[in-house]
Each structure stands twice: as C-alpha cells, then as structure tokens.
C-alpha cells in the first residue's frame, strides 16, 4: 500500500496520511519524538509529490510529564514545521493517569494537494527503472538502540530524521519520469523493496556495493546480529526513476543537504516475478525475504 491515501474530490486530488509515534527514548541523537512526528508525516505526504496543506497534531501525556521536556519537544516541532514549510492547523491534548502511556505519545495527520497531471504510484514502476536512495541506511534505528538502557555502549551515530519534501519538490521539477517514491521507515530498505516488488509484480536487482552503510552502523549491526537492510530510517526516500532521467535526478538530489550521498542502488527487472535479489560484493546473489517480526520495536 502507498504511504498516503489519494482522494479525488471536486476536480482536485488530495493526499491524506496519518501516523502515531511511540518512540523510546523520546530524545535521541539528532532528534526527538516531536521532530520525528513532523518528519514522518511530511515524508509520507511527499511520496505523492503533493503540496502539503497542513497537519493535525495530537498529544497524549501521562500526568507528571516534565514541563521542560514538553517545551523542548514543542520547540522541536516548531523548528521542523518551519523547515518543512508546513503549518499545524488543528490539534488536541490529553493527559491520562500516570502509567497509562509511556511518558508521551503523538499522533499526526497530514493533508496535501497533488499537482495537476502528477501521478506517483507503485503501479507506475516498470522494467528498467533505476532505484535511487538519498544516503546511508540504518542510522535512525541504531541511534535509538544506542540510547536504550539495556544496551550499554557509546555511539556517535546520529538519526537521519529529516523532512524530505523540499528534496522531492526539486526532483519533480527536473523530471516527469519519476514513477514511485517510498519513505524507508519501519522495516528499512529491504522491506520497502519487497513490498514494492510485490505490489508492482516486478523483480528487482540491488547491489550491496552501492548501498551505503556507515562503518559504525555496520559494526554495531555485526556485533548484535542485525541486518542494516532491515533497520529503520527517518530521512531516506527510495525512488523509482525512468533510466533516461536517473542521472539528472541523482544530480539534483545530491545538491540537496539531505541527499549529498545519494546513489543508484539497482534497477527494476521484468514483470511476473516479485523477487528482490541482492548482488553482493563478493559476487554472490542473495534473495531478500520479508521479516515478519520487528528487529527493533518502538523506533518511531
């Protein structure tokens, strides 16, 4: 399924999405639950190429939640909304008995209008499309993990949490041959590719040498037995682009501060097979499988 629902009404096409955020801990390197809630919803809207009209914002807090923490989260929400150029137009706050929630939960919804003639969808993916991602994977999930009490290790990893709507606007302005976009959050890059292969009924080939993972993320994943391909991201967009426009789209992404390490990681194969094949650096081929259990719970 797509990251946002498409509603056709009165001659206009609207994108609508909603998400709830229960991340633990609520503060982490590179962000907090407030920044995360705005980025997550803005990025889901961005996958449709829409212009955001506004967000709803609802807080559920347990009694006794520190005011200083609330102020810090609200300041982060304001800063992220301003960067994304999106207004919060309605909201709600509830306080429940201590222990009824874990500190604070946030729900956001977003509404946007899709530009005339623009249609991005998994159904548009075709054989030969290049697959692009805007940078290294796994930073968000591992930055969250490093802050949890049960894992006693130090890390310099910073979450990639970021609003990507400006980057999407830039690539859409340069190419009309972008077929589909997907926000690679929970389940990571591998899950996104598997879902889109299944929905589009196309095989996909990706190349491990082109998928960037920082040495620190790779080292922690090796130590804990985790696969970076399945680790959550909060600032990574997977793009399916006609091969004729792949280079200009890649160049445009790299000019954005959130896409300087973008790379073409693979291509779409023939229709009729839903497999995703990872071509390794040592010349072997590995078929990716869907993981039905979550490697890291409460990472968003």
Explained architecture:
The chain is an alpha+beta fold and about 300 residues long. Helices cover about 25% and strands about 30% of the residues. A 7-stranded mixed beta sheet has the order 9-11-8-12-10-13-14. Strand 1 and strand 2 form a beta hairpin. Helix 1 packs parallel to helix 2 and helix 4 runs antiparallel to helix 7 (about 245-255). The longest helix is centred in the N-terminal third of the chain and has 18 residues, at about 65-85.
What's the layout of helices and strands?
Blueprint: E1 5-9, E2 12-21, E3 27-28, E4 31-32, H1 33-46, E5 51-62, H2 67-84, E6 88-96, E7 104-113, E8 130-133, H3 139-146, H4 165-174, E9 178-183, H5 188-200, E10 202-207, H6 215-224, E11 237-241, H7 246-254, E12 263-271, E13 276-279, E14 285-287
Helix pairs in contact: 1-2, 4-7
List its salient traits.
seven-stranded mixed sheet; 300 residues; five-stranded mixed sheet; globular; 14 strands; 27% helix; single chain; 7 helices; alpha+beta
